[in-house]
Structure formats: structure tokens, C-alpha cells
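Re: your question about ABC-2 type transporter domain-containing protein

S., sorry for the slow reply, the queue was backed up all week. Below is exactly what I fed in.
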Amino acid sequence: LQGLMMATAGFFRHYLDLPKIFWRYPLYYVNYMTYALQAALKNEMLGLEFEPLQPGQPKISGEKVLTNLLGFPVTHSKWWDLAAAGVILVVYRVMFFFVLKFKERAMPIYRTYYTKTTLHQLKKRPSFRRAPPPQQQPFPSKRHQVVHSLASQEGLNSPL
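Result:
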């Protein structure tokens, strides 16, 4: 999740370069890192003037760099971006709390179901079936031998 958040926040690719279908619309707008990065860049870039690329041209303002080069809106202040990042983080924490509470209540039900299905499958397996009595066995099986006590076992010729 953190990798997806970093990939869509604007650290690696600019907002305008993200594909619209999955990356820009759902992930870019619910990403708290996007708003934190916008606030940090607004804090650093607004009010600055940069030297032009070619001498004799007018200086480039930090606002133009943010809007034209990086694609960040400057219609609202950095404090709105920080507030949005904080609200998104609180919402994520609350959602995670409810997921944990749901898991806490659902796990005993899931474990009971899983145990019942596993025991049912184990009963179907031939190795867990009860062995028929010795007089009904067509041939002696090494799997279902008569258990002898340890005191009756002598030497290397022990039945077990």
C-alpha cells in the first residue's frame, strides 16, 4: 500500500503523467502523501523567483513552476493540503480500527468453520478410517497392528 501511495503521490511521476483510469482518479485523490507533498512544495516554492533559462527573459515565479511544470493547483493554501492529509490519515486509522474489530469477532466463527471442514475431510481419508476387526481383514496390515506394551518388547525383534 505504501508503494502504491508513493507511486501516485508525485514523487516519481508528475500528476499529469499518471494514467487516468486507475492511478490518477481513485489513488491520487485518496492519497495522503499527495497532499503532504503539495503542501511542502507550496511552502518552499511560493514567493520564490527563478532565473530564466535564456538571458533577457523575465524571471520565473514559483507559482508558475507549481502550476505549469508540476501540475499542482495553487488555488488553496498549504494549510488546506495539510488539513486534507490529516483528515485522510484519521479516516484510515478509523477504518483500520473497524477492520481489526471485525476480524476479532469474525475469527472464532471462521476457525470453527475451518476446523469442521478439515475434520470432515480427514474422516474421508483412508488413513483415518477405523480398521476392521482382525477376523474380517483379508490380509494382515502393517498399518493397523496390535499395540504391545513397552514392557513386553524384548530386543531387536520387537513387533513395533
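The chain has five helices and two strands. The first helix runs from residue 2 to 9.

Happy to talk it through on Thursday.
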